[in-house]
Amino acid sequence: MTKRINYDNITVTCNGSPSKESLMNYYNLLIDYHIRKYGKKVVKKALEELLNED
Q1: Secondary structure class of 17 (helix, strand, coil)
Q2: DSSP code of 14?
Q3: pLDDT per residue as tens digits for the range 4-48
Q4: Which of 3, 12, 32, 54 fits as disulfide partner to 22, beta carbons 3.0 to 4.6 Å?
Q5: Rounded to an integer, what distance in angstroms lies between the CA atom of residue 9 and that of residue 24?
Q6: What is the pLDDT of residue 34?
Q7: Which residues contact 7 (CB under 8 A, 6 or more apart)?
Q8: Is 2 a residue whose pLDDT tops 70?
């Protein structure tokens, strides 16, 4: 069983303060990493499945 991460509870900080821009940069880095590792089609399918989850 895969452990689910509650991303609503994640706070990314920059210089000690919460930063929405830093969080977006973090997500972009993760997506870019996975695209390089697995390819665009696989990552796109995974993101679509996450977005369509109930």
Answers
A1: strand
A2: E
A3: 767 677 777 778 887 788 888 888 999 999 999 999 999 999 999
A4: 12
A5: 15
A6: 94
A7: none
A8: no
